[in-house]
Amino acid sequence: MEQFEFILDFEKPLRDLEKQLRALETVSRENKVDVQSEIDSIVQKIERTKRTVYQNLTPWQKVQIARHPKRLYALDYIRAFVEDFQELHGDRRFKDDPAMICGTGRLEGRPVMIIAQQKGRKTKHKILRNFGMPHPEGYRKALRCMEMAEKFRIPIICLIDTAGAAPGIGSEERHVAEAIAVNIRQMSQLEVPIIAAVLGEGGSGGALGIGVADRVLVFENSYYATISPEGCAAILWKDRAHAQKAAEAMKLDAQELIKFGVADEVIEEPLGGTHRDPDKSAESLKDTLLKHLQDLTGMETDSMLDKRYQKYRNIGIFLESKNFESSSNIG
Q: Fewer CB atoms < 10 Å away: N or C end of the chain?
């Protein structure tokens, strides 16, 4: 993983304390001075500050953590707990899309098909993977692999992490909206269990193109929404500077997603985000995936498809007015 300093504004008090801790440890090591009591005091203060900072995050601050450049990406999780992963390439129509990773592997010995969006960490990898924004060929590759999974009766695991589908001219020329729409339709009918997990960003149709699932899991500091906060602010307030206000209004964080029935379970993160404890984060995702795979195993196909259908029919809250007919005829 590339090493570099990146601190969010609300993390600055914590960074200052961590700098003090490193300085004390250096003094103790180099000068053979016993400053253990001071180190213990700073460690305790760091833990208190972590709880103060990270246990009261606003929706906008959670969006910032979801975008943190050190946050774990799909390949980090695949390497951590997917055994015998074999990547599959190409959509058999145009070309391969590095922003969409597809392949077979084993989860605790059980065969699974992995469909994942990958952002890339270094500059050349970000460009290669188009910052995690798939082109239409990425969605068509994903569907090809999902249909292969259905043929061999293999469960599908989708790892979502994208700001949205690629918006460029080439993407439009190759019909990105149609590719996403076909995926949504076909995923609703696939006769194998599908579990989707939002790792960081879950943006717009770019996320939904691999997001139709029997179970939708969301990391604690991830978000899942029809548009980015900046895009929403540009539409509603004509100024992207209102992104924080948009994030509040959009109800896009994990707890709100559970409340509205969009997600089924929140995966807890280490304080500060998944990058603060990669091993613990990977273990949490693995355990949650295994639990839901076990729940879906053995379910009758018709029952599974009906529950999947009802899940998406029931998302959201709708109010109907008894006086709608009379009020609509006024005048």
A: C
Q: Are 64 and 270 in contact (CB under 8 A)?
A: no
Q: Output phi, psi for 263, to 5 deg.
A: -115, 160
* Alpha carbons 209 and 165: distance in angstroms, whole number: 9
255 vs 314: CA distance, rounded Å: 18
State the pLDDT at residue 138: 98
| CA angle (96 as vertex; 92, 101 as ends), nearest 5 | 115
- The domain ranges of the chain are 9-56, 64-313
Residue 77 sits at the vertex; the CA angle it makes with 76 and 79, to the nearest 5 degrees, is 70
pLDDT per position as a tens digit, 196-235: 999 999 998 999 999 999 999 999 999 999 999 999 999 9
The CB-based long-range contact list for 321-330 (8 Å cut-off, 24+ gap) reads none
64-313 maps to CATH 3.90.226.10:
yes
CA dihedral over 137, 142, 147, 148, signed as positive or negative: positive
Residue owning tokens 């953590």: 65
In this prediction, the residues of the chain whose per-residue pLDDT falls under 70 are 1-5, 317-331
209: nearest Cα among 230, 231, 186: 186
Segments in 108-175 forming alpha helices (H) = 123-128, 136-151, 169-173
Q: Please answer whether residues 226 and 207 qualify as being in contact, where contact means their C-beta atoms are separated by less than 8 angstroms.
A: no
Q: Tell me the per-residue pLDDT of 232-276, one tens digit each, with 9 for 90 and over.
A: 999 999 999 999 999 999 999 999 999 989 999 999 999 889 999
Q: What is the mean pLDDT of the chain?
A: 91
